[in-house]
Structure formats: structure tokens, C-alpha cells
User: Which sequence fits this backbone?
């Protein structure tokens, strides 16, 4: 392999003039091995970075999906709480209407055949 130095004129370098073809072949093989090792290290680092970035991306995507699902669950829980509070308020009104004295009196007189007493007597323990 002949090396040239470039300047105003192309000349053979002094190394190329004095080296034998076997030396240059040996050195070129050695340089190729060194370059391959350097490329292998560089490729391993790049592969590691790609895997690391991919893993981080998958983790972030999983975490965001989990947060979205929890958000939907929270909205569903709030809706069910609102529905249950409305039902509870309606049931309290039903209880109040069922406990009313007028309703009890109308059922006692109408369905059970009871009559109201003409006079009401009270007992007093003090006497």
C-alpha cells in the first residue's frame, strides 16, 4: 500500500519508500483489528443507550396508562358517590313521610278500624 502526502505536489511518503509489503500488510491488519474493537465498544454503548431509552419510554408509557386508568376509576367512583347521596336523600324523605303522625292516624282509622278517644287522660306521678 503506497501512501501519498498531499501538498503542492503529490509525493510518496518516506515510510512507504522504505517499508516492505509484509510490514504494511501486518500493520494494516493490526489497525483493522483495533478499529473493529473500537467500533465494537462504540456499538455496545449505542446499543445500551438504545435499550435504556426504550426501557425508560416503556416505563413512562406504562405509568401514564396506569394514571389514566386511575383517573377513570376516580371519576366513576365520584359518580357513584353522587348517585348514592341522591338515593340516601330520597330515602330520608321517605322515612320522614312514613313517620308522619297524620299518615299513622289515617292508617289506624281507615285500615285498622280504630277510633280516636273522646277525651285524653294524663297520669301524673307527683300526686
Assistant:
Amino acid at each position: 500500500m503506497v501512501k501519498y502526502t498531499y501538498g503542492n505536489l503529490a509525493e510518496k511518503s518516506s515510510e512507504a519508500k522504505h517499508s516492505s509489503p509484509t510490514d504494511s500488510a501486518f500493520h494494516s491488519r493490526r489497525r483493522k483489528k483495533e478499529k473493529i474493537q473500537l467500533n465494537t465498544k462504540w456499538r455496545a454503548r449505542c446499543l445500551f443507550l438504545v435499550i435504556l431509552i426504550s426501557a425508560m419510554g416503556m416505563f413512562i408509557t406504562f405509568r401514564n396508562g396506569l394514571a389514566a386508568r386511575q383517573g377513570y376509576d376516580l371519576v366513576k367512583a365520584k359518580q357513584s358517590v353522587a348517585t348514592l347521596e341522591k338515593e340516601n336523600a330520597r330515602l330520608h324523605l321517605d322515612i320522614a313521610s312514613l313517620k308522619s303522625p297524620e299518615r299513622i292516624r289515617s292508617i289506624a282509622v281507615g285500615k285498622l278500624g280504630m277510633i280516636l278517644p273522646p277525651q285524653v287522660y294524663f297520669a301524673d306521678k307527683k300526686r
Summary: The radius of gyration is 49 Å. The chain has three helices and two strands. The mean pLDDT is 82. The first strand starts at residue 4 and ends at 5.
